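Entry 14. Structure prediction run on the chain below.
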Amino acid sequence: MLRNALFTSSLVVAFLIAAPTATHAGVSEQETRDIAKEAYVFGTPMVDTYRVMYAFSIDKNNPQYKGPFNNILNVSRVFTPADTAFVTPNSDTPYSFSGLDLRAEPVVISVPPMEKDRYFVFQLMDLYSFNFAYIGSRTTGNQGGTYMIAGPDWKGEKPRGVDKVIQAETDMVSVVGRTQLFNPDDLQNVKNIQAKYNVQTLSAFQKKAAPKAADDVNWIKPIAPAIERSSPEFFNQLAFLLQFAPTHPSEAALRKRFTEIGIEPGKPFDLTTLTPAQQAALLAGMQDGQKEIDELRHSLGGKTDTLFGTRAFLKNNYVARATGAQMGIGANSREEAMYPIYDKDATGQPLDASTHNYTLRFAKGRQPPVQAFWSLTMYDLPKQLLVDNAINRYLINSPMLPNLAKDADGGLTLYIQHESPGKDKEANWLPAPDGPFMVTMRYYWPKPELLEGKWKSPLIEQSKQDVASASPKTN
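Output returned:
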């Protein structure tokens, strides 16, 4: 299939000035609205995934650019507020990134042996945002190995020297590697491990001539998050991306419905083929889809582990997948990591450090049950990015325990607020912005009592020495 079709990026203008040709006039307004809602919910993870992929692997002028497809870039530091390509990044594990283009041939990922107590993971996410496979401590162990990632059309036997073949549903795959950093003095050890990670094409791995290259792609510019939920350009993005995602048998009828309003793989979405009434219905369908996403998000109470995983786990629950993309694109499956989100305190009020100080307390012997480690990370709202602060601390995690102060009874209290809680408590201080915020708990490699819900995350409480007990702040 030729994959270099030219795409327009001015559909909003077309919506305002172009005379419709109405080639889809046989589709009712209600049908148009229903299909648009389905396409919006289905496509949100794809459009969001593409935005990150474009920044990381395509747009060389983007400050977030990591390198071309089928290579690896190691970030030998933890993330800071300057890293803005995706929301809710972690700052516990130096990242390794790779975008895979599997159209011409498979790609081989090699990882070295490392200490048995060091957690690492390579998360493989397809264009749908499914976490379709893992390489790492939990799944493949720390003894090192070589793994071939093949595209949906690949057929063949496992090549010599490859430990396992992993097949993806889509031609494009995002790989996110995480390597545990124990403390600042451990950074050189992490760099040494990262230097031995390798991503290469199968032909390079086998030292053979490369096959015929895939067709050039005229990569379209991603849609900005600010207008993604209301611009018809969303459907142009989706149509572009569907060419890299062969139809899954369970979605054949759904994909056929998309074509009824002009969403076809590899073809520009032309808004002028819809009547003005259909165009209005299209935008209303987007709003309907976003409403379903928002309703699910608000019903979760910060519990997100049902939103990420394989196709088999999510069972084609498109609303869950889209909600996960908007809450934290690229999050791990629950077996790998769980991410309870705190955006309200124990009384149900939104977290806001301009009016309250907060605490989070683990009773003695009741810290999170994990095989690897846990962390609590601060994000501002509504951007959901790391928060700049005077002590450059973006999280508190279990590797920091030796430096944290214990309560008199052996428990652990963390102080979550904008201003310092005082020198005697500053070791346990997680700085917050002077306004609304959220914090994400991360449980890496959770133990069964976490997975089964037998251990519950503690609630965030308003501090007894609350700033609000005096007078509210004024701006």
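The chain has ten helices and 18 strands.
Filed with the rest of this week's runs.
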